[in-house]
Amino acid sequence: MRATLFLTILFALVSVAFAAPAQLQSRGGRNGRVTYYSGYMMSEPACGGATPNDEDFVAAVRADSPFKCGDKVTLMHKGNKVTVKIVDHCDSCTYGEWFDLSKSAFKKLGALELGIIDDIIFWKHDN
């Protein structure tokens, strides 16, 4: 009986371990890029609504990105993490999964002086 219980638990744990990467793959990924935008570039966001400011935790993405207006996405780099809301499109974001962040959001991942941060891990939250 104990052996059966042990095998059942072991099978469940192995199943979860193998399912996790597939789930991340369908809702996020690795090797993303972030930059930041501010000022007049934040005016009239493509998703509508109020114009965000540098203190908001928002992002712009390519118009053909799998991430859409209103999606909440968490970005992580070297243990630093930030969650942003997609509110705009970024015409110059041409590299894979590129997120153009507000200054506040960018600073959660690294110094503004960096300008670009690669090797970002990202995932979408269920809205």
From TrEMBL:
Signal peptide: 1-19
Domain RlpA-like protein double-psi beta-barrel: 65-118
Alphabetized Pfam families for the sequence: DPBB_1 (PF03330)
TM ranges: none
Entry keywords, A to Z: Signal
Superkingdom, natural source: Eukaryota
Coiled coil: none
Stored PANTHER family: PTHR31836, RLPA-LIKE PROTEIN DOUBLE-PSI BETA-BARREL DOMAIN-CONTAINING PROTEIN (PTHR31836:SF27)
Protein's name according to its UniProt entry: RlpA-like protein double-psi beta-barrel domain-containing protein
Organism of derivation: Malassezia brasiliensis
